[in-house]
Design a protein that fits this description.
Helices cover 39% and strands 16% of the residues. It is an alpha+beta fold. The protein has four domains: 6-30 and 54-205, no CATH class; 214-259; 273-341 and 480-613, no CATH class; 350-471, Galactose-binding domain-like (Jelly Rolls, Sandwich), CATH 2.60.120.260. The strands form eight sheets. Strands 6, 7, 9, 12, 16 and 17 form a six-stranded antiparallel sheet that branches. A four-stranded antiparallel sheet has the order 8-13-10-11, with no helix packed on it. The chain has a two-stranded antiparallel ribbon with strand order 1-2. The longest helix is centred in the middle third of the chain and has 21 residues, at 294-314. The radius of gyration is 31 Å and the shape is globular.
Length: 677
């Protein structure tokens, strides 16, 4: 792409006064009119006031979708774009951060590069550019050039361009043709200028007289339900004024929801609300959780996606039923993780190698076993033709002497993957099963004996039988399955339990915080600066449960004010370890799974799931989270009455999530515009 000066394009596409320079105003309803609180009889709430408006920068996902639709095909500009703002605990949704982020000089430079790259890719192919422009213009003064610009600017900026704006962009085409001797070059530069304009990069939704206009509503609706720029039909509805009318807005909402683009857009809401995208990169300490692999983490994410999709899009069923569902979707790895029967038709594991360890010199053989009689290691080279998930099975046993059992360590390529105490006997060995995700090539597997002891006649040894290595069969097929009796609802799925846990253990506090803030919309302040909230490990040799450890929080007046709102919700989930595997003990000690939800006592994860499935706070919080995602604003008390009305419509529709979306779009909470900030 031969370039015109950057300054020329920036001047032509710079912000106009329409983008506004406003002071913040947060409508909290203090001192204003009051209405009865429908959730708390006898109490009052502020009368409805719309949330503040403003500019929202497109997220990278929205921008890439918009470029694809505007340029009638895929373009690759991901490497050119500035990074999206990162969500944190205070801003659960990327859309909220996009409402607050500004673009510095580096971001402007990156957007310029992305716009130029996108335009160049779209105009590189003759057939594609003719399809985009709608003609093969003889020159910049060809009437089809202005017709294309009018059409393209309207779609890109999500509103009609003014005659003056059209003149400026037509001038870019004329300049490009004159200086570069090619009308297509001029059109390419005009498209690049359009795509680096603030009118494209920012969603201008300021409203007028307390209401968003039709083109602003088209923008809000399209990016909410499709995560892309409005299509021609939606813009025509806006031009006709149909989006100011309930029936017209309802018709367009249903049309967008029926389109395949709605599913990935709404699934992104669930992904950010529940946080399960992190399962792709989640890490667990292999010394504590040797069966966890990156492939298992990805399967956990897929399980959550399929469970949500089935209820929301396939069945259009009760969203609240997900809180205590007894169904899920598993592949082979998850079936094993849950202790479910193998999936019918799944490929069996493939035996790729066996290893018979040799007893080192000076040790007495035990029939069928190699004997490590002093500290050291035995190793084996495992060669793989292709990458894959490998499971090692090793029958081992150790002699107990000197007051403690034998301890063994398994390492892969010099990195310790598992350390454990070994008991058992020759007739009843322990079966150590470890899973690794390994690249193609040769890997050294080592088993080490860590704590030799010899004071005749006492002798501590480690003994190892034949070791086998299996490659997991084809594990990408998921099938619907009944959850084991100890599991009910989304919170009992391994992905949710793994996300809200530590790399080496569970975390009743993290799990309880997730329930309190994400499902009940409560707010817990972070620990004060300088306060170490980490629970100390018990002294060596002392075994206590996590309930006993977090009891320190609940018995300390300073800590209890916050922890009493989290820990009693997370402790019943101690039935599952840090990777969501079921357990009946903690540190060998029995579990107390009792919990408390705002004064309602319950016992265990199944009763917790039942309570949440009927909890009004979960219904209301689902609506509030949707508001935050769709509007990019934190809800405040002045919007609460409108959101409660949406929640009631949600209940009336049998908790159909798609019906919730429609009720929300038609509500004052989505259509009304507060003062800009």
């Amino acid at each position: 792409m031969r370039t015109l000066p950057l300054l020329t394009l920036l001047c032509l596409s710079a912000c106009t006064g329409r983008l506004g320079d406003v002071e913040p105003l947060r409508p909290d309803g203090v001192g204003g009119p009051k209405v009865p609180d429908p959730r708390r009889p006898g109490e009052m709430l502020p009368a409805f006031a719309p949330a503040a408006t403003g500019l929202r920068r497109l997220t990278n996902h929205q921008l890439e979708n918009s470029l694809r639709d505007l340029l009638e095909g895929e373009v690759d500009v991901r490497a050119e774009l500035p990074a999206d703002p990162v969500s944190d605990d205070a801003h659960a949704f990327t859309s909220e951060l996009a409402s607050e982020v500004s673009s510095g000089s580096l971001a402007v430079e990156k957007y310029d590069g992305a716009a130029r790259a996108a335009a160049e890719q779209a105009f590189a192919d003759l057939a594609r550019r003719e399809r985009l422009v709608g003609c093969s213009p003889a020159g910049a003064d060809d009437p089809c050039v202005r017709a294309f610009l009018e059409r393209f600017l309207r779609r890109a900026w999500r509103r009609p361009a003014t005659p003056a704006e059209l003149d400026r962009y037509e001038a870019i085409v004329l300049t490009g043709e004159a200086e570069l001797d090619d009308v297509w070059e001029g059109l390419e530069h005009a498209v690049a200028a359009t795509l680096q304009s603030p009118h494209f990069l920012y969603r201008v939704e300021l409203g007028q007289d307390g209401r968003f206009d039709d083109f602003e509503m088209a923008t809000r609706l399209s990016y909410f339900l499709w995560e892309t720029t409005p299509d021609a039909e939606l813009l025509e509805a806006a031009a006709s004024g149909a989006l100011s009318d309930d029936e017209g807005l309802r018709a367009q909402t249903r049309r967008l929801l029926a389109d395949p683009r709605a599913e990935p857009a709404l699934m992104r809401f669930f992904e950010e609300w529940l946080g399960y995208a992190r399962l792709d990169q989640i890490q667990k300490d292999p010394g504590y959780f040797p069966t966890f692999t990156p492939a298992l983490g990805r399967a956990m994410r897929r399980e959550l996606e399929l469970s949500l999709r089935q209820t929301v899009f396939v069945e259009d069923g009760s969203f609240m039923a997900l809180m205590d569902t007894d169904r899920t979707f598993v592949n082979g790895a998850l079936a094993r993780h849950y202790g479910l029967p193998p999936i019918p038709g799944a490929a069996p594991p493939e035996l790729v190698d066996t290893w018979t360890p040799e007893t080192p010199g000076g040790c007495a053989d035990v029939p069928g076993y190699a004997n490590l009689c002093s500290e050291g290691a035995l190793s084996h080279d495992l060669t793989l033709d292709e990458a894959g998930v490998i499971t090692m099975h090793a029958p081992v046993w150790g002699t107990d002497a000197g007051g403690e059992p034998a301890r063994m360590e398994v390492a892969v390529d010099g990195e310790a993957r598992d350390t454990r105490e070994v008991r058992g006997s020759a007739s009843a060995p322990e079966r150590v099963t470890l899973t690794f995700e390994l690249d193609a090539g040769t890997h050294t597997i080592a088993i080490a004996f860590l704590n030799d002891f010899y004071e005749p006649p006492a002798n501590r040894d480690l003994r190892i039988a034949e070791v086998s290595f299996e490659r997991a069969g084809e594990d990408e097929t998921f099938t619907e399955a009944a959850l084991p009796l100890e599991r009910r609802g989304l919170l009992s799925l391994a992905g949710m339990l793994s996300l809200y846990a530590r790399p080496i253990d569970t975390s009743p506090t993290q799990r309880g915080l997730f329930i309190r803030e994400r499902l009940l919309c409560g707010h817990i302040d972070p620990p004060p600066p300088g306060v170490d909230a980490t629970l100390p490990l018990p002294p060596a040799g002392m075994h206590i449960t996590n309930r006993e450890r977090v009891g320190r929080h609940l018995s300390d007046t300073y800590c209890a004010s916050c922890h009493s709102q989290m820990d009693p919700l997370g402790l019943p989930l101690e039935a599952f370890d840090g990777v969501g595997a079921f357990r009946e003990t903690d540190q060998g000690l029995p579990l107390d799974l009792s919990g408390d939800l705002d004064g309602v006592r319950f016992d265990g994860p199944v009763e917790l799931a039942s309570l949440l499935s009927e909890e009004q706070q979960v219904v209301d919080c689902t609506v509030r989270q949707l508001f935050r995602h769709a509007t990019g604003r934190r809800d405040e008390r002045a919007q609460r009455v409108a959101l409660y009305a949406v929640a009631d419509a949600f209940a009336d529709a049998g908790y159909s999530f798609l019906s919730l979306v429609e009720a929300f779009v038609l509500s004052d909470a989505f259509r009304s515009a507060g003062d800009p900030r």
